[in-house]
C-alpha cells in the first residue's frame, strides 16, 4: 500500500492533478484502513461481550462431563421430551441469582460488562452473561428474564427467610403484562432450589411443598391465557452436596414433568426437558474427573469481597466468581438466615452450563 501511494505521488508531480473528489476518496480509504488497524480489542469485547477474541473458546474452560440421558418415568435423569431448540424464538426465564440478568420484568438487559471495582456485570452476580443468556444468544432468541437474586419457590414456606422474593411474585409480574407469545416458539425455563434447600435447614423440610408449588406454576403457564408448551427445568440444589431431601425434591419435579408430558393435569401434553447441573459441580469439586479436566486452575472464588479489590489474578480459570457464605444470627431460640452470600459461577462456568443444557436438548431427545 505504501509503495503504491509513493508511486502515485511521484506521478502526480509530472502529470495533471486528479479531480479533488478523487483525492478525497484516496484519503478517505487510507484513513479507513488506518483506523481499522488500530481498533482496540478491549473495546470490541465491550461491544459484544458474548464473543471471545481469544483463539481458545471460553478461555479454555470446557465440559469434561456430559449429560446422562434417560427416559421420563423413572429416576431423575437428563432428558428432552419434545423441545426443538432450533424452533425457539423467545425464552422466558424464572429463577434466582444464577439466572438473574439484572432486570426482573422481562425487559431488555443491560450489557453484561464488568466495570471495576463493581463485581456485577450489568447487575448480574457474575462477570459476564448468565447461562440462559448464552443459549438465547446462540439461537438468536428474544430473552425475557424475571429471575431475581435470593428467590425461592414460595416464600411463605420459609418464615425465617428475610428476603421476600419468590417464583409466585415473578409469575405475577409476567402474567400481569399479558404478553402475546407464540406457544410453539416460546421456551419457559425454571431454575430454583438452591435457596429453598438452604432454607430447609432452618425452617424444616418443606421441599415437597416447594416442589409442588413449582409444578403448580408450570400448570398455570400451560393454561389460558399463556398456553405454554415448552418447559425446561434445571437444578443444582446442593452445588456439590447431595441429601435425601434434596434428591426427593428433584424426583418430585421430575415425576411432575413426566405427568405433564403425558397430558396429566394440563390442557394438552407438554414438551419438557430436565437438566441436572450437579454433574458439573460433582465433576469439578470432586475427583472424577476433577477441576483441571475442565481447564480450571482453582475451584475457589476469584472475588472475596464486594469489590474487585484483592481479587484473583486469573479470573478466567476460576470456577466461581463471587465468594459465598451463609451467616446465621441467633434471635431468641431461633437461628435466622440474615445474609446469604452464595458462591456464584464465573462467566466461563456460565458458558459451560449453557453448553450442558444444549447437549441435553440435542443428545437426550426422546419421543
TrEMBL record:
Entry-linked InterPro entries: GDSL, SGNH_hydro_sf
Pfam families: Lipase_GDSL
GO molecular function, one term: hydrolase activity, acting on ester bonds
Protein name: Uncharacterized protein
